[in-house]
Amino acid sequence: MKNMLSLLALAGIVSVTGTAYAQVPKGDIKAAEGKVATCIGCHGIAGYQASFPEIHRVPMISGQSAPYLVNALLAYQKGERKHPTMRGISGSLTDQDMADLGAYYAQHGQDKAKPVPDQPAKQPTAEVAALLQKGACISCHGANFNKGVDPSYPKIAGQHADYLYVSLKAYKTEGQAQLGRANAIMGAQVKQFSLAELKAMANYIGSLPGDLKTVPQSKLR
Q1: Does the pLDDT of residue 211 top 50, yes or no?
Q2: If pLDDT is split at 50, 70 and 90, which confidence band does 1 have?
Q3: Is the distance from CB of 43 to CB of 59 less than 8 angstroms?
Q4: Long-range CB contacts for residues 45-53, cutoff 8 Å, separation at least 24
Q5: Which of 37, 43, 113, 185 has a CB 3.0–4.6 Å from the CB of 9, allowing a cystine?
Q6: Whole-angstrom Cα distance, residue 156 to residue 176?
């Protein structure tokens, strides 16, 4: 039972549960071009750093899987993820809007992307390897952390390490109005690790090559 929980829990270091992606309409990349202005303000600026409610670089979403992006937006909309800015933005989106944005960012900037090795080019230290094995991370995110066993699981290789750490830590946070993520499985999973251990895993995964990137964009489109 414990092993099964580990496998289910690592459905995403930054993953979500809840509304099934299959319920969302098919995304229209062209239609999304008129909807990305709000996203560009943070996700279209290389190195842009959020300052509230915690300080961290905003996640790279160009190249992320569409099902995961849609599920993440739904989680913010439903309040399963507590983030004031993202809650406000997602609250204004329809299911079609979210599907369009997911489809758009999944292919965004991927025309010149380099193939990502099936196995990590950089091996973790023995200590980090033990932590990753304890969390059964590759069971959902793949051996290279860039291709999950299901598209609804996020690509995390190369993601900003500080964002990965904040995301993991959010599952340990309870009783805060503007911080935290409600996911019983992930909550139970991260509580077996100390903050230092979560940070060590985040630093390693963030150092790996992956599809994720920030593609500079202008609001003047």
Answers
A1: yes
A2: very low
A3: yes
A4: 45/214, 45/216, 46/214, 46/216, 47/214, 48/214, 50/85, 52/84, 52/85, 53/83, 53/84, 53/178, 53/179
A5: 185
A6: 26
Provide the pairing of β-strand 56-57 with 49-50: antiparallel
Checking if the pLDDT of 9 tops 50, the result is no
d(CA 102, CA 55): 25
User: Does 7 have pLDDT greater than 80?
Assistant: no
CA distance 152 to 173: 23
Question: How many residues does this entry show for the chain?
Answer: 221
Tens-digit pLDDT profile for residues 143-192:
999 999 999 999 999 999 999 999 999 988 888 888 889 877 777 788 89
Tell me how crowded residue 219 is: count the other CB atoms within 10 A of its CB: 10
Look at phi and psi of residue 18 and say left if phi exceeds 0, alpha if psi is from -120 to 50, else beta: left
Structural domains in the chain, CATH included, are 2-206 (1.10.760.10)
According to DSSP, the residues that pair with 56 across neighbouring strands are 50
String of DSSP letters for 51-78? -SSS-EEPPP-BT--HHHHHHHHHHHHH
pLDDT per residue as tens digits for the range 53-67: 999 999 999 999 999
